[in-house]
């Protein structure tokens, strides 16, 4: 695992104090990790605020860059432009159990859900961790989702944790990564943009790290120690979550989500046929009440002509989060003895060769 302070800083914008999605005030992240021989999987939860999201929803929008995925909840997000549960990440076969847990969680907090109150829209994203994890065991339960929620805080562990435990990226160990950027605001002060990724995608020869085409070199090193990778097809996925405190509506948030694809492409992804690449952006600047008799927020949205700085922050923080996911991951051995090596094991001397800007915060 490469120490975070040594990693290259992407772009010219400064990070927040944690260089994490939780630099956006109110956002918290929690993990539940299952590490038991054949079972290498987990759940990661992102909470936009600490209150009841069903009662006080946040504006959001999603973009499907490539639709080879089995997520739940995207149709209503597209229609209404709001989130009303925490965002959950897990493996492909655990979407249903986590979605059920989100519904039960909402019913406990709001007993009239689906009766005198509207039904709730669970939101669960997935990637396939079946190379390392025995996905057919359906090991994830609702309790694991609740544990991830209970662990949610501002300090975000990265790498082979939570939903990232069994994920692979570029034929190496993938997983969870996060980063943030601060953007000057036209009216004074600044806005914060944060990204969190679940990285489970990519072909090693195509890998680029901080602009350096290192994939071919790494593929040779991996072949020397582990033998050639017989699986040449792109079968992975990546979930890209973007948070900001800038006052944006759902239309503008969709535009932000789309720019996550720019950061993803810089790492060498071509959004391959078998890859489910989905980006979602939300704003914490205001909430939208569930009840029709509650007052709607009166807030001026950011002018479209001032949004380019946020676009830059999304692209840079997304790329940075992917670098963090790869560099912070530890090697994992799982189902049938399958193993994924860690990037740090193959390229231990890489970060020190890249100068660090004075704006980078450990």
UniProtKB/TrEMBL annotation:
Q: Which CDD domains match?
A: DmpA
Instruction: Return the similarity comment.
Output: Belongs to the peptidase S58 family.
What name does UniProt use for this protein?
P1 family peptidase
Organism of provenance:
Polaromonas jejuensis
Q: What is the organism lineage in this UniProt record?
A: Bacteria, Pseudomonadati, Pseudomonadota, Betaproteobacteria, Burkholderiales
